[in-house]
Write a structure and sequence with these properties.
By secondary structure, the protein is an alpha/beta fold. It is built from 14 helices and ten strands. Strands 1, 2, 3, 4, 5, 6, 7 and 8 form an eight-stranded mixed β-sheet that branches. Helix 2 crosses helix 3 and helix 3 runs antiparallel to helix 7. It is globular, with a radius of gyration of 20 Å. The relative contact order is 0.16.
């Protein structure tokens, strides 16, 4: 058995449901044979990414595990992102209602005019950004959405600050936009959730593990105002990821006859893997994404560990050798025949060859 394996991580956002990713990272950190290259993340995924990077920068995997625990414990204790408690009137009003309902009636500039964000204090209490910029062994791509253009900005490790993470996790219905260098930013999930194309095309590590939090589909037709809002939010935040998957499959289809050149050439050979928590989070009330209940978060943490244990048992030996998810079949199962994106096998090196199926999705 090989003793040293290296993977990139791509961490999807999902509010308090990001505790599933916490569980995934917690289990991976118990594997000394697996190290991490680059991490691409958005929203709650960014909080997990900086927790991991901060702990590793402090010198050990155990410190990274402890750092992640402390961050998620602090999320629970501070009530992030349930901001109704900031305003006594809203807190009383919302007892039978939800923060999601409040967000449809008032702007955060109205119910939180001073722009208080408990996530800022939480992050600065637990994360040394100067240490990350100087000593983190992993590269970081933290996505935020430029409000005026809707385009993603990726903050790299050397420029990472608390403002970048707050921008990446800034839901505009709950928080004031975060200003960086004179520009306003919202949640990175609107534009890159997470960015796979940049990660796979720039990282020298040939394997990327995508950790998904949001359900890929929901067969129930939403008919109430609340269900429609929840459904449209899911579609909105999944759209950037699906766009990246379409780019990757298109590059691979082209590579079947003409080897791609330039920035995207690496996509044809990159090996992707998936741990998908969508079935777990999909069974929960969507409003638990903004209600940091410790019982829900520890349940998701345990589910993340369990999913990772099963993935390692099935695919540990595939890292560095072959891809373990058919991207087209996993993400576009409803498309059949000639309309389904073609996928090619991604070998460890050399030209890729066309293949109809690349194994079961994780």
């Amino acid at each position: 058995m090989r003793t040293k394996l290296k993977i990139n991580l791509a961490l999807q956002g999902g509010g308090a449901h990001g505790a599933f990713t916490w569980g995934v990272l917690d289990r991976l950190l118990e594997e000394p044979s697996i190290s991490f290259g680059w991490i691409s993340a958005a929203s709650a995924g960014s909080v997990n990414a900086i927790g991991l990077a901060a702990g590793l920068a402090e010198g050990s995997r155990e410190k990274a595990r402890a750092k992640l625990f402390k961050i998620w414990e602090a999320v629970h204790k501070s009530g992030v992102p349930d901001l109704a408690k900031l305003n006594p009137f809203l807190n009383g009003f919302s007892r039978p209602a939800s923060m999601a309902q409040i967000a449809t009636m008032w702007s955060p500039y109205e119910f939180n005019p001073l722009g208080f964000d408990p996530l800022r204090r939480l992050i600065t209490d637990h994360v040394d950004f100067e240490l990350i910029r100087r000593d983190s062994p992993v590269e970081l791509l933290i996505a935020a959405t430029h409000v005026s253009t809707g385009r993603a900005r990726l903050f790299r490790r050397h420029e990472l600050t608390v403002e970048a993470v707050l921008a990446s996790a800034c839901l505009p219905t709950l928080h004031h936009a975060v200003e960086i260098d004179g520009a306003a930013y919202w949640d990175g999930g609107y534009s890159a959730n997470p960015d796979l194309v940049t990660l796979a095309s720039e990282s020298h590590v040939g394997d990327t593990l995508l950790v998904m939090v949001s359900p890929r589909d929901n067969d129930t037709l939403p008919t109430t105002a609340r269900d429609i809002a929840n459904h449209t939010n899911r579609l909105t935040f999944n759209a950037p990821l699906l766009r990246d998957i379409e780019i990757i499959t298109a590059v691979r289809e082209t590579a079947g006859s003409i080897l791609p050149k330039g920035r995207l050439a690496g996509l044809a050979r990159h090996r992707f893997h998936v741990i998908d928590g969508g079935e777990v989070t999909g069974a929960l009330n969507p409003e638990t994404t903004i209600k940091p209940d410790w019982n829900v978060m520890t349940y998701l943490h345990g589910a993340g560990r369990d999913h990772t244990e099963k993935w390692l048992a099935a695919h540990r030996g595939d890292i560095g050798r072959k891809e373990t998810v058919d991207l087209a079949r996993h993400f576009f199962p409803g498309i059949s025949g000639a309309d389904q994106p073609h996928v090619i096998a991604a070998g460890p090196r050399g030209p890729a060859t066309r293949k109809s199926a690349m194994g079961k999705g994780a």
